[in-house]
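INTERNAL AUDIT FORM
Audit reference: QA-55
Scope: verify that the stored structure record matches its stored sequence.
Auditor: D.O.
Record contents follow.
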Amino acid sequence: MKLGVVGLPNVGKSTLFNAITQAGAEIANYPFCTIEPNVGVVAVPDERLDKLAALYNSKKITPTYLRFVDIAGLVKGASRGEGLGNKFLSHIREVDAIVHVVRCFADSNVTHVSDKIDPVADMQTINLELILADIETVNARLGKAVTMQKTGDKKYKAEAELLQRILEHLESEQPVRTMQFDEEEAAAVDEMFLLTSKPVIYAANIAESDIGNDDNPLVKAVEAQAATEHAETLVICAKVEEELSRMSEEERTMFLESYGIAESGLNRLVKKCYKLLHLVSFLTAGEKETRAWTVTEGTKAPQAAGKIHSDFEKGFIRAEIVPYDTMLQMGGYNQAKEHGKVRSEGKDYVIKDGDVVLFRFNV
């Protein structure tokens, strides 16, 4: 899964990206520093892996990963090609979800593209450009659907009606993700790759001095706006997170304790992104390796097996399942089997988060 990190120039977007990936993306105090998107791969924190590996004396632990893409800063007029608008829009179209960094700090040494700190206005600037781009896309599709209605095919009438409803919603300056669709309509919308249909997390980037301040009015404004858009909010200090990313595990723990923070903002962000994308992890374990695998909610056992190897899906016989907590309680697979805690599941079984799975297959 790929998440796009977006925001107006100089909101701390590349600083946050560096903290997430330690990839060393260039940072500068001027717009369009990021032109081609930087890509970083990030491990999803999962404390279950270490405990499960200890049961099996695993030689290797492999977490599951998310990809983050640092996309060029956007300016007003991007939907008309202003700044790096066309590149921005093409890059954001390719991601599965958006992490929208919003500036909630004042710093005279860091210029703001509009010369004022107003996070809601910043949010609306980017959202409006995405809405305008979607209006252009929907209008083009609507024109084709109206023309094809003349063939008498009812599917084009239904498509035109859906597109007209979406267009009216967009013209009221509302993102597509705030609309309600039935299952068939949702599938059709997915195929349109509309920018405002993508799930969003607003990363409210605060100053170091504001850590622990629950009454930051800028953050409150972001949270209120996000709620109207069916979007998530995460409060984070990109500068501190970048510093943390350079520390050893021991130093990081001491630093977080000094602020009274239980978990880094990055871990919270990665976990929130995982949840936003409706992803779950199933686990495999053995002496050679303990590993987490990513699937979307609702994935059935054969398709989950296919994540490991296509032969597993083709020759799927059954999945032997032990929930993680049960596995830990029993002390291992053999003990779980002795106590009748191993379930044998067939092709219709839906994988659940934390399932420890042994696939049986025949090629």
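Auditor finding: record pair retrieved intact. DSSP finds 14 helices and twelve strands in the chain.
Action required: none
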